[in-house]
Write a structure and sequence with these properties.
Chain lengths: 357, 298
């Protein structure tokens, strides 16, 4: 094992570095340009995917037995008779002005649909990331401290198991065991059907809304339904958090200041938690922020299994009926969330890491 | 092209590519977890090769008098809602899984290598443009982008494979670029350039072979993700279509019966879990066998 000295670039080289080719911290102006270019690229990508489909967007709207005239009308209204570059600029203009079109399935504007389903997913993902980080960070530290001992190996297998499970399958097994057999948790949905519609809160976050309304039955029902999917999502995201925590922690433990701390008589516990761990906090924030975005991926699958009325289910429902406009808007939003999280972790870095000032 | 500098290169290059791989293999077998991963993968390959011999029933023959039979007796893992033998379907599913991994890997490797080495070697505007495109692809979680591609192309196994390939080349490109940057200014590249070799020739003959070992390891690491994404697409009904015995699709159809007939979803799920765990354990061992800092890249 080589002792890493200098540690010139302590930043995690993951998705987080993607706005910074070369790994150096860029000027603010350069970063804004970089974000804009990435956003533009995102639009080009969603536009290209949306147009290259063999599926007919007009048929999806007018149905199979529409007359030729209706077909032509919709065709022209969608602007499909215009040159491709004109279509792109029209799309660009629509996106900039916040016009994402109307979803075929609900008849509502796509963006208001998404705003409506988003709280359910955010509630799920937030619970999941708390569980994932709460599990992953301590495990990562323990693994690093006990490097190559049995604890390290057990933690490795445990976290890789979480990373290897097909989450839709684990969701089903969880339902079979904890819902059908043991009856410990609620089944699918955000709450028991008995309570649906009782609380219509200002935020859309069921736990918060039911607290505001003071309705404890709804609160417990919601919590009961949330705990299983959130735990499974959290477990699956803890693998990456554990691995990165272990790796950051090993970097620190190999440095001379740790030896110095031990030599001057500081306890093992204090050396680990008050010296080494303090130095990796900033890096961990980045990792947790990125994992939070990654949860959207698991959410698509877990929401299908648990009939969770969130963003993931909205995306798959529209996929299955071939509403490309709604699908591409969802994809675009995921991309924007990802870029936003990257920028956020970058900002956190600037604020918390004195070396970047 | 037969001067002293170049003459011994091919032999030494080949040796330099194989010797570390043997070392890595020795290292892997010493760790119980990666040895387990290797064993499972070897078993998977053997099962796929001998699937028709080992299968007790035809995977697609329905028997409506014999539906939803629990495991045991004539049917090792029971039967599904159409009376098909689950054990035999799982066995034939190994071929689909390996097929997906193989096709994705042979597509992703060359694309990633080409983008990465060209960006890294030529630099300048090529580097900026190619890496910008890579970054845009990286700004989506893999499954979401794959969903978008399958939605556009239409649901089928082949389209799922294309979609997965289209979404998994960017990490390879980043790795190949980083490797290329470390070789770009070395003396042997300068020597080749002075002899008048074209950029294409330098990339193909001097840079790509040097990137191959690390790219191949990164591809192995990628395989667990490929399996899970393919199974996820199959589960959502966007990948392999029935009656194909793809594991994710088997779980999707078994879902309706899961509360009464647990074996419909349990066995395909355990298969996916085992194989993806095996690739993850192997990848983890590979990462440790090489410089850990270098391989932390996602």
């Amino acid at each position: 094992m080589t002792i890493s000295t200098g540690n010139a670039s302590p930043r995690p080289v993951g998705l987080g570095s993607f706005l910074r080719p070369g790994g150096r911290v860029r000027s603010l102006g350069g970063q804004v340009v970089s974000i804009l270019v990435t956003l533009f690229g995102l639009l080009v990508l969603t536009f290209v995917i949306g147009r290259m489909m063999p599926a007919d967007p007009v048929r999806a709207i007018v149905g199979e037995d529409a007359t030729q005239d209706t077909y032509r009308m919709v065709y022209e209204r969608l602007g499909l008779d215009r040159p491709i570059w004109e279509q792109f600029f029209r799309y660009l203009g629509d996106v900039v002005t916040g016009n994402f079109g109307v979803a075929i399935r609900t008849g509502q504007p796509v963006i208001s649909d998404i705003l409506h389903v988003m709280p359910a997913t955010i509630e799920l993902a937030t619970f999941a990331i708390v569980i994932g980080a709460g599990l992953g960070i301590p495990l990562g530290v323990i693994a690093a401290v006990n490097r190559d001992k049995w604890a390290d190996n057990v933690i490795r297998v445990f976290s890789l198991l979480g990373h290897s499970m097909p989450i839709f399958w684990t969701g089903m097994i969880g339902l079979i065991i904890f819902y059908a057999s043991l009856g410990w948790v609620g089944g699918s949905g955000r709450m028991s059907s008995f309570y649906i519609g009782l609380v219509r809160g200002p935020t859309g976050f069921l736990l918060i809304d039911s607290l505001i309304a003071g309705d404890w039955n709804v609160f417990w029902s919601a919590l009961n339904h949330l705990i299983l999917p959130a735990s499974l999502l959290g477990y699956s995201s803890s693998a990456y958090i554990t691995r990165m925590t272990r790796s950051f922690m090993l970097d620190q433990l190999n440095q001379e200041y740790v030896t110095t701390a031990r030599v001057k008589g500081l306890s093992r516990h204090d050396t680990i938690w008050k010296h080494a761990f303090v130095n990796i906090r900033v890096q961990l924030v980045t990792i947790v922020a990125l994992s939070y975005g990654g949860l959207l991926e698991g959410a698509v699958l877990i929401e299908t299994v648990f009939a969770w009325p969130g963003f993931g289910q909205y995306l798959t429902n529209n996929l299955l009926i071939g509403d490309m406009n709604a699908v591409m808007t969802c994809v675009l939003i995921v991309g924007v969330i990802f870029i936003g999280l990257n920028v956020l972790s970058d900002v956190l870095y600037r604020v918390f890491d004195p070396r970047t000032r | 092209m037969t001067d002293i500098v170049n003459a011994p290169k091919p032999a030494s290059r080949r040796r330099s590519a194989i010797a570390p791989l043997l070392n890595v293999l020795r290292f892997l077998l010493r760790s119980p977890t990666s040895a387990f991963g290797l064993a499972v993968i070897a078993l998977l390959v053997l099962l796929a090769i001998f699937a028709p011999l080992l299968a007790t029933h035809d995977p697609n023959v329905q028997n409506l008098n014999n539906v939803l039979q629990p495991p045991g007796g004539n049917h090792l893992f029971g039967t599904d809602e159409l009376g098909r033998d689950i054990f035999s379907r799982l066995l034939h599913g190994t071929r689909i899984t390996l097929n997906i991994i193989f096709l994705v890997t042979i597509t992703v490797g060359p694309i990633g290598l080409a983008v990465g080495t060209i960006a890294g070697y030529l630099g300048g505007i090529f580097d900026t443009i190619l890496m910008r495109i890579t970054d845009i692809f990286l700004s989506f979680p893999g499954l979401i982008l794959a969903l978008a591609f399958v939605a556009a192309l239409g649901p089928s196994l082949n389209n799922a494979i294309i979609a997965i390939a289209l979404t998994s080349w960017p990490p390879i490109a980043r790795l190949a670029r980083a490797e290329t940057l470390t070789f770009r200014s070395s003396d042997y590249i300068a020597a080749a350039r002075l002899q008048g070799a074209s950029p294409f020739r330098i990339i193909m003959h001097s840079i790509v072979p040097m990137c191959l070992p690390s790219v191949m390891i990164r591809l192995t690491l990628n395989m667990a993700t490929v399996i899970l994404t393919a199974a996820g697409l199959g589960f959502l009904g966007l990948g392999a279509q029935p009656p194909m015995p793809e594991w994710g699709a088997m779980i999707a159809t078994g879902r309706r019966y899961m509360l009464d007939s647990w074996w419909l979803v349990t066995f395909p799920g355990v298969s996916i879990l085992l194989v993806s765990l095996a690739f993850n354990l192997l990848g983890d061992g590979l990462r440790d066998a090489l410089d850990p800092k270098q391989m932390n890249r996602r």
